[in-house]
Specification:
The complex is a heterodimer of chains A (about 120) and B (about 110). In chain A, about 0% of the residues lie in helices and about 50% in strands. With about 120 residues, chain A is mostly beta strands. The chains are: A mainly beta (about 120), B mainly beta (about 110). The interface of A and B includes residues 55, 58 and 101 of A.
C-alpha cells in the first residue's frame, strides 16, 4: 500500500508566479490535511479537506492561498502570486474516516519544498 | 487539545534504550497521546498512540501513567537512524488538526 504521495518534491518559483502542490492520499483515505513548515519552525496546520469539501481552513492565509480535493484526482494546494515569505516545506497528511469516538491517525507525505526567488 | 511539555533535547548512546518523556497534565478523558518524529526535514512519521493502556509496536513502546498526566516513549535499542525530533501530541477523537510543538531533539551518539 503506497503511502501519501506529494509532487513535485521541489518547486522553484519567481515572485508573482503561481505554485501548485499536489497530494495523493493513501489508498482508502478520504481526509486530507495540509501543513506548512517554515525554516527552523514546527509544522503549522493550514487546511482540512474531505472529498469535494473544505472542512476547516482556519490556518490558511486569507489571500492568495486556496485548496481543493476533487472527487477524482489529488488534492491541490494553490498559491497565487507567490512572495519570498511563502518559501517553506508544505506537507500533506491523510487519514481514513472511521468516525465516532475513535481517533484517525494521520500519515504524512514527504513534502514539497517551495523556494521563491 | 491539551498542551504538552517535552525536554528540548536529549542524547542517547547507540544500542541503548531511549526514553523520551512528555507531560500532558491537562489531558481529558477522551484524548489520545500520539507520538510522531521528523527526521531532518522529512515528513513527520507516525510512531505510536495510546489512550490509557501501555502500547507496543515494531517501532516503540508507549508507557502512560495511571493518571494519564504524563507518558514516556521508549525506543528499545536506539540506532543512529533514530536521530530526529520527536513530537508528543494530544488529540481528541475524530477530526483533528495536529498542533506540533517544538518536540524533543534526540541525538543518538555512536
Amino acid at each position: 500500500n503506497a503511502g501519501v504521495m506529494q509532487n513535485p518534491r521541489h518547486l522553484v518559483r519567481r515572485r508573482g508566479q503561481e505554485a501548485r502542490l499536489r497530494c495523493s492520499p493513501m489508498k482508502g483515505h478520504s481526509h486530507v490535511y495540509w501543513y506548512r513548515q517554515l525554516p527552523e519552525e514546527g509544522l503549522k496546520f493550514m487546511v482540512y479537506l474531505q472529498k469535494e469539501n473544505i472542512i476547516d481552513e482556519s490556518g490558511m492565509p486569507k489571500e492568495r492561498f486556496s485548496a481543493e480535493f476533487p472527487k477524482e484526482g489529488p488534492s491541490i494546494l494553490r498559491i497565487q502570486q507567490v512572495v519570498r515569505g511563502d518559501s517553506a516545506a508544505y506537507f500533506c497528511a491523510s487519514s481514513p474516516s472511521r468516525g465516532g469516538a475513535s481517533t484517525d491517525t494521520q500519515y504524512f507525505g514527504p513534502g514539497t519544498r517551495l523556494t521563491v526567488l | 487539545d491539551a498542551k504538552t511539555t517535552q525536554p528540548t533535547s536529549m542524547d542517547c548512546a547507540e544500542g541503548r534504550a531511549a526514553n523520551l518523556p512528555c507531560n500532558h497534565s491537562t489531558i481529558s478523558g477522551n484524548e489520545y497521546v500520539y507520538w510522531y518524529r521528523q527526521i531532518h526535514s522529512q515528513g513527520p512519521q507516525y510512531i505510536i498512540h495510546g489512550l490509557k493502556n501501555n502500547e507496543t509496536n515494531e517501532m516503540a513502546s508507549l508507557i502512560i501513567t495511571e493518571d494519564r498526566k504524563s507518558s514516556t516513549l521508549i525506543l528499545p535499542h536506539a540506532t543512529l537512524r533514530d536521530t530526529a525530533v520527536y513530537y508528543c501530541i494530544v488529540l481528541s477523537g475524530g477530526y483533528q488538526k495536529v498542533t506540533f510543538g517544538t518536540g524533543t531533539k534526540l541525538q543518538v551518539i555512536p
